[in-house]
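Bumping my old thread because nobody answered last time. Still need a sequence for this structure:
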């Protein structure tokens, strides 16, 4: 009997009457004995359990999710075959080449460069869509709206910008090679490589976010094995070497060198297909988890 001996039911009825007087209407059909329970329910703390964090108000389109995951291997194929082989960038034309040699190189390979670079410029967007699929898988570990999932998606999206601009620079050089001086051709060639390589830390943020989240996976069989995450850290570390390319034109740190090209690029060329393989396999696993817990909505 709180409030100086007044019964609790009387207090509840008075509270209901106050509401009625304040609103100018009759007493609402509330169950007065449960009024305090309604208040407590309204202000209860949110459920932060793992199951609650995995819930989404929107249906999950697993088919589209998997299609986006497959755009990663498609992008990798385009870069490796078109940019790497057709455009003769494995290894790149030497940074020590003179302006006349650079112009001759673009004249000799003008048609292959036009084909390869124009397609690669367009298909670089596939890396963005792949990053969206990766972020969605990461959210199933980190929780919806996780900061590292967002960092990965932003890192993958912004990575596309310097790649696209670089492809456009070299494509322009190939298209206009007969109208440009050797000095301009030399400048455009170096402009492309400086942008292509020195924007690496955007991708490094993406790699770090992916590695951290998947190493935190508490499943008995992780969605992405630790070996792939650790190789991500190797890739992360290897990128630092390319910071030297503005200062050298020969040797292992030049942009066609053993360290700055063959190691830095091929750690990434190994990491991306490895990650893509397990991301693609993770989607049906997550669908099965959702079905087992009754969270699949169509």
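Sorry it took so long. Here it is:
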């Amino acid at each position: 009997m709180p409030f100086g001996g007044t019964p609790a039911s009387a207090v509840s009825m008075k509270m209901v009457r106050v509401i009625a007087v304040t609103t100018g209407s009759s007493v609402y059909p509330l169950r007065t004995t449960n009024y305090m329970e309604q208040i407590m329910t309204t202000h209860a703390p949110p459920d932060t359990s793992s199951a609650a964090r995995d819930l989404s108000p929107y249906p999950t389109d697993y088919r589209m999710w998997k299609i986006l995951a497959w755009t990663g291997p498609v992008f990798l194929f385009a870069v490796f075959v078109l940019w790497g082989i057709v455009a003769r960038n494995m290894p790149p034309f030497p940074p020590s080449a003179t302006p006349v040699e650079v112009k001759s190189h673009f004249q000799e390979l003008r048609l292959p460069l036009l084909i390869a670079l124009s397609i690669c410029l367009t298909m670089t967007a596939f890396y963005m869509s792949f990053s969206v699929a990766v972020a969605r898988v990461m959210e199933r570990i980190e929780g919806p709206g996780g900061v590292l999932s967002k960092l990965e998606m932003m890192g993958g999206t912004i990575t596309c910008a310097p790649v696209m601009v670089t492809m456009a620079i070299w494509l322009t050089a190939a298209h206009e090679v007969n109208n440009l001086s050797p000095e301009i051709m030399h400048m455009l060639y170096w402009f492309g490589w400086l942008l292509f390589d020195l924007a690496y830390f955007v991708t490094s943020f993406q790699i770090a976010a992916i590695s951290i989240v998947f190493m935190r996976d508490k499943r008995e069989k992780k969605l992405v094995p630790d070996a792939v995450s650790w190789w991500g850290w190797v890739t992360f570390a290897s990128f630092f070497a390319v910071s030297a390319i503005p200062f050298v034109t020969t040797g292992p740190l030049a942009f066609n060198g053993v360290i700055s090209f063959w190691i830095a690029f091929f750690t990434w060329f190994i990491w991306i297909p490895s990650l893509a393989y397990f991301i693609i396999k993770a989607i049906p696993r997550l669908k099965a988890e959702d079905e087992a817990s009754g969270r699949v909505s169509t």
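Confidence is low (pLDDT under 50) at residues 8-33, 35-55. Let me know if any region looks off to you.
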